[in-house]
Amino acid sequence: MKQRTETMEPTARIAVQKNLQKVHDGTNVYLNKNEEFQIEFYNPKKDEIMASVIFDENPETYFEIILRPGERFFLDCNPITKKRFKFDTYYINDNKANRYAIEDNGVVTIKFFNRQQKYQQYLSTWMPYGTTTPSPYNTGPYIGTSTYNTSRTKSFPLDVSYTSNVIGDLQTTSVYQCSGDDQRQLLMDSVTPKSVETGRVIEGSSSNQNFINCSFDSEVYPCTTYKYKMLPVSQKPIYSDDIKQYCTQCGTKIRNEKWTFCPSCGKKI
Question: Among residues 40, 102, 106, which one has the least CA distance to residue 72?
Fold first, then answer.
C-alpha cells in the first residue's frame, strides 16, 4: 500500500447557501446586505483538531469547534447562541477617522490547533447529543473547553470572559492620535463628506444545528490560520474574470480568450 507523505492542512472557507465564495486579492470576500453565510470547515488530519473563530476582532464573538478526522462541516451559526451568521451593512462618511474606526469590520479570523501531544496514555469519552451514557461515538461537531499547556496550565469554558493571558493578541489596544496634517484632512473631509458602505457580522435567524460540550487539550500555537475580509458588494472592483465576452453576431459566449472565430457562426472575434 502506498503511503502518503505530503502534509495536508485543514481549511476554512466562506460559503453562502453552501456555495463557496470566491476570494479576491487573497482575503476579500464580497457579500450582500443582510446575507446569511456559513463557514466550511475541513479536517484532513488523522486526529481531531480544534478551530477557533472570531468576527470583527470582537472577543465577545469568539468560540471554538472541534472537528473529527476527515470531517467536512458547514457551520452556519455561533454554537453558543445558536444564531446564524449574518452580514449587515451601513454607510458612514469616508474620512480618515472613520476608516480607522472600521478597519476591523468584516474581519474573520480562523485558527486551527492540533491536539496536545502527551507521552502518557490519555483516555477521553464523548457525550453524544441526546443521550445520557458516555460513548466513543458522536453525531456532530463538538464545542467545548480547552486546556493550554503553558507554564501555568489554564482551563476556561466558552461562556466566560477571556483575559489577556488566554487570548493575548485580542487584548492589545491602539491609540489613534491626530497630527496637524490629519486634523486638516479631517476638516476637509467634514466640508465635503463622501459616504462608504461597510459591514459587520451580527446575529441572524435561529439555527437548527446541534452541538455538545466537550474537552480538548490543544497546543498553544495554531498550526494553520485563515483571515478573511468580508466587504459589501458595492466595494467590489471589476476583475478581468468578471467581464463576459459574447459574439456580436449570434450572442454565443466566448469561453476561451484564444478563440479568433466564433465556434457557432464563424464571425471573427
Answer: 40
